[in-house]
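Suppose you are handed only these lines of text.
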Amino acid sequence: MLAAAQLRRTASRPRREIAVGAYVAAVVGATALAIVYAFAGPMADWGRVAPDWALIAAMAALIILFENQRIDLFGHSGQTLTFVPIFALALLAGPGVATLIAVPAMLAAGVGARLVWYKIAFNACVIPLSSAIGALVFYALAGGPTTEHLLLHLPLVLIAAETAFVLNTGLLAVAVGLSTGRSPLAVWSEKYRWLAPHYAALGLTGYAAAISYIELGPAGMAIFATPVGVVWIAMAQYTSRARDGVERLQTANRALSRNEERFRSLVQNAPGFIAVLNEDGTLQYLSTPGVGASADAWPREMPRDFLSLVRSQDQAEVTSVLADVLATPEVERTVELQLSHGGGKSRHYSAIVKNLLADEAVHGIVVNARDVTERKTLEDQLRHQAFHDELTGLPNRALFHDRLEQALVGAARRACHVAVLLIDLDRFKVINDSLGHAIGDELLVSAAQRLRSHLRESDTVARLGGDEFAVMIEDVASRSDAEAAAMRVLAAFEERLSFGGHQAVITASVGLAVSEPGELDAADLMRRADVAVFRAKEEGRARLAVYDEAVDASSTRRFEMESELRRAVDRDELRLLYQPEIDLRSGLVVGFEALVRWEHPERGLVPPQEFIPLAEETGEIIRIGHWVLLEACRQAQAWRLTLPELGRFTVAVNLSAKEFLEPDLVWRVAQTLRDTGLDASMLRIEITETVVMRDTHVARKVFFELKGLGVEIAIDDFGTGYSSLNYLRRLPADVLKVDRSFVTEVDHDEREAAIVRAVVHVAQALDMHVVAEGIERLEQSVVLAEIGCETAQGYYFSRPQDVATIERFVRERQGPSARAA
Ligand code: C2E
Ligand code: MG
Ligand code: MG
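From them, the structure of the protein bound to magnesium ion can be written out as follows.
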């Protein structure tokens, strides 16, 4: 597996590598040969001392130590002292022993240093080989180390050391040359030449070590080794510290340049700019946006003053922010500004402004601005969409309201009026429904244009929705000015409008409301214009209606009442009061009229005149009538048990016109009688003369049907309408209720008395019973009794009262004790 992998790698490598391989193999082979030769050859006995294990171990340890702890020497880093122990060992124990010890020691050092295998092998051989050969040279020249001819020996030591130097560096230069393709000589001259004095020094050191050992034994070696070791350790420490420093410096440098690069790319690529200002706002530095739209028309030359770049509208804000950061250097302020790029172009920026005047490196106010033009444009679009009508492009209701509020504030200051016109297209719905929505839309667009073209630029025209437009006119001097403007709008719609291939006159109903100076309620002004436009439509469209407070007050109240009345029945706010009818001869109670009241939560008891007509109009009267009928019948039936002293009595229920004409009236009356169990003859239905006479045919029919049930019928407020006696004759009514207006003066106005007398006679002739209403004094009742009127009702006897009061009244009036008295 391994061999195969290596083979593949070898095959893929260029020739140069093969050459290096062969060279390494040759050096290794030569070393092996040298060892064999050293032991077997003529110099087998070279060496001054027999190697003992302590020496061998010490030298091997030094080799490993020196090899792994390189030092800076003579200005060159990464140098080893390995030559010293090997050379010393070779001088002491002979080159053969030295090589044999040095090679494995070097191998161990190389493995420890985790080098590539062939480098380990090469290194392990080169120094021992060259050191051994250097020692051989010395032996050959001097016959071995001795103190005797020390002075003579020193030059020989230098020759031996330099031989080792030439061999060692030469072998290395060839290796480097082979692997890099350069000339070995050039490599040597560049990288190794300077090592000559190094080897000289190391050679002398090695020689000194050997001499020390020979002369003084291991102790001498130790004494010699001490200064060398101290120097070596010092240098090693210095080297490693220096290297650390260099490394740190390099790392810092790398980080710095990385940061710088990153910063530069940020400044250049970010859409935006960085400006550094002096205290007075003059520009110290202004970056150029490298890319993006901000680069467009960027000032080619840096202006002197930063503010001159800022759009005039933003200058005040920027100035105040600059003043802020100058005052408090700790704060960082953000400001949105627009910068003119020249050529009419400008872009939006969001800038962070910071006072770095105290910072030594910067010494300025830094404006770090991000281009936010795209975001701004989007925001503007969204804002426009939120406040404008998509179809016509006009402001929508929200914006109109907003502008109106502002205008009212302004008008209050200037003491003038604001006019609001509401415009409703009269035939829009018809056109929209008949020609389709697309044409309808075109009509709206064309109407919007028409409006715009007939108004001043300063007037706000808005589409509130559907076919409803609004116009706001500011600074109106008087009401008549506003009316004139409204008339212009009206006139604008008298001309034909073109829309979707059609042409037509589309008139408009216009409502006008003008604010009072100082008035600030926009919503109320709008509401008033709304009331006015409603009136314009009611009055026949294609016209102007000006808001009128008096009309509005009643219509507002009416509107409120309407909705409240709609809830009255459900909320159980209706009450029934009863007014007794008295038999004028006996003075006994013979019946009651049920009279409705509305107990309004705020207004208290509301009389029927105030809500019955409204209920008639809205149709609510039907539900009210149902309740009254049921309640009156239920109460009458209850009284039959609780007020036995009453004997036979009737309960009268009033019906309005709408109730009377309700198709299921008769059915309902029958149903109510059945439900309450009340005898039909005890119920009386009262209908005013006016209602009866409005449609005598229907009245006759209903009368007959009700009579069929056995119910009594009364013609109420008799004398106020224009009854034809002929008709009256044909109606199956039982009672005539003489209106109060005929009885007020009956006791001292002879003519009034004559009329009542006539009515009584007619009634008698038609076989009808007469009830007089509104008796307030004893005298009236006396006269009426004389005239022949049998029954009367009025405040003189009792006001309309609630059930409890009525019950007390009846008991007091005709209970057992009352009768006894
Ligand atoms: P009406 O049916 O002619 O009722 C008589 C009205 O005269 C009552 O007024 C009563 O309070 C008032 N009245 C009675 N005696 C005197 C008196 O001595 N002096 C004066 N000044 N007034 C007297 P009220 O209750 O306000 O009812 C007014 C009208 O409202 C009734 O006239 C009736 O037409 C209508 N109404 C009352 N209740 C109902 C109801 O439940 N349904 C319908 N559809 N109409 C009702
Ligand atoms: Mg009545
Ligand atoms: Mg009446």
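What can we learn from it? The first helix runs from residue 2 to 12. The first strand starts at residue 71 and ends at 73.
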